[in-house]
Amino acid sequence: MLLKLRRSLLLLILLLSACAPRPNLTLHLDENRRSDAVWIATPTRGAGWRIGFDPRLEPKDDVRQAASLADWLSRQTGLSFSVYITEQDGNIVDDLCAGKADFVVVGTVSYLQANDQCGASILVRGRNMEGEDTYRAAIIVAPESSIQSLKDLRGVSFAFGALNSTQGHLIPRLMLQQAGTRLEDFSAYTYTGSHAATANAVTSGRYQAGALQDTLALDLARRGLVRILALSDPYPSSGVVAGPHVPSQTAEMVRRALLQLDPTTAALYQWQRTEMPLGFVTARDDEYEDLRRIARLIGLLAP
């Protein structure tokens, strides 16, 4: 009897709550204002906007760098950002085009593939330690190696970075092609998957030469761990790309925020090791046309 009475009281409370008058809501549109612009509301997402990345350094360092950028963007824009990590056998371009990642910090090849595959757009690209928005690739050997020129690479073992890496594969392939060296001329070659893995492959002696991003190669050379055999011409640097599903107003908010980033005061994790240590400049698709032609030539883009 007591149990039935409790259930009846609970039902009565729920009915009275449902019938209670709802409070009036006053909307202040000025609270939506940032600077002189009013932004359209961003669609709600459970985990926020997800930032992915190309593998560059050790996995833990890549994740920490991306996480620090996500935290900074969250504070700067008022939106929610989190890190997206591609599965071991996954591909960041496929994940971006499938909507699993929303923004990605990637090299030129990944951008060109994403643009070709699903119409992803480049927002900004990085500035190096000299303040330039370009980067170069380096071909390295051990300090004591007898190899003195790119033509001496015939018959040696060679380590590229990731297959889709601009500095670890695309630009080095152009350098080798200009020197008259083909893949068939190597005694063996491999794709290590990252610049750090390529550096380890050469410094450990497992491979006689390799291709790296210029910043890491120059750092290792200063420390006497490798010798730079050749540096490439400068090409448009890595940048931040938005997936085609990202609303244009959200992409524009992110672009504007990134253009204001000052890494020297933003406390980003080891940002000096990235390819954008001094922040970003606006990027345009037509600036990548030369590298797009090279990528098609060596099969990284559909003909």
Structure in words:
The chain has 303 residues and is an alpha/beta fold. It is built from 9 helices and 15 strands. The strands form 4 sheets. The protein has a 6-stranded mixed beta sheet, with helices on both faces. Strands 10-9-11-8-12 form a 5-stranded mixed beta sheet. A two-stranded antiparallel ribbon has the order 1-2. Helix 5 (166-178) links the parallel strand 9 (157-160) and strand 10. 40% of the residues are buried.
For the sheet with most strands, the description reads: 6 strands, mixed
Query: What is the helical fraction, as a range of percent?
Result: 25-40%
**Reading side by side through the largest sheet, how are the strands ordered?**
4-3-5-14-6-15
Q: How much is the radius of gyration in Å?
A: 25 Å
Topology, number of strands: 15
Mean pLDDT: 85
Number of helices: 9
Span between termini = 80 Å
- What's the helix-strand series? HEEEHEHEHEEEEHEHEHEEEHEH
Q: What's the shape?
A: globular
List keywords for this structure.
303 residues, alpha/beta, six-stranded mixed sheet, five-stranded mixed sheet, globular, disordered N terminus
Brief synopsis:
The protein is an alpha/beta fold and 303 residues long.
